[in-house]
Fold this protein.
Amino acid sequence: MGRISLKNIFFILLGVLGLVYLVYKNRCNVESQKSLFEPITEPYKETSKLDNLTCVLNKEVSKNIGFKLSNKKIFCKTDGREVFIPFSFVKNYYEARGDYVQNGASRDFEISHSYSKVYTPKSKYDPSGQFMHFKSFNVESRSRVKCISASDGVPVSTQWSPAGYYYPTQIAQFSLSHFSNHVANLHKEAQKILIEDGDSIKIALENNAADRVIDQESKSLVIEFKDTLDFHVSSEYLILCLDFKSIDEAAFKIFVETDVKDETIVLNYFPVDEFLSVRNDEIVFGFGSKTDGEWLRITRDVATDIDKVLSMKKSPHRYKKTSLKISLLQFSGHGQVTNISLSNEEHLRMFFHGAKWFLKNQDKNGGWPSEVVFNKDRKKYPKAEEIPAGKGRFSLKQVG
């Protein structure tokens, strides 16, 4: 049996210590990399004050592609270890969206890069039923939807123009979303308050501003007003439906009470061309300046209209639907109105608004051109050409 010398024991111990040292160093490196590059999973604890920092955007990129040096600067903050960039920059530059969400007792800020969701089919697909998973869509609530057009009842997009334009893909999604919701809720009876249904007035006229006349076009009874006409109501149903004709600068207003004491929001619907604007401190939805003598089928979801106004004003406040109540409908100018009602849902009617828009706007080639300039002045994509209005076309293959 061989003997183990002190020299051998020394080398064995030395090897063990060396191995321990290497394991320790490797662990430290991994933890260092993890703390620097992995997402923070625990609440950030401020250990030092934040200093101002100027961030320069795409300096090297501009040089590499031969462009004039970008003067784009972003005012950021740093604690010496992390750089904090304003979300307003991230939102616009990377087309992200963010919202404050309540998470138990704390409030978080949720950032998303997409509206996309994955839905598992719950039953066999029926081609005569809901369209795919569009029941879950709420197109009108999207940040790129300026509002729902007062004249056509379809969404107005702002993706390529802040003034707003009709984007056929978005309108198709809006229509199919409401059709799917209609199919899903066939067994539910809509709640409705009739104010005037073409046969009789359910709420009495309070002055001599209006009278019942026979409309020459439809040969049916309608209300004709030549002065201010008020309908006082108290309704938690927030969808207003009516058929409206402007004879001479006719307009109407919706007065909405909130759960804030003495607060009333007034929504104005005027014969102007801007989809949504502020005129003389009044919120105005335009149904077009050339609609005199034309019957318009109007559907207004008051909760959606208020949300769009708040978004336009960049107000962080939002109202719950249960906190809103329609108190007054007011007509002015010279016009006619009929089939007035307030209801809690009008999915089929909103679907028909979209279907009518597609019938009205289809071109001779069977498509729907987008009347907006894409990549105007080549601002968004400098290397790509500008696409003139009407050249970008939509086909039914693009719906999903």
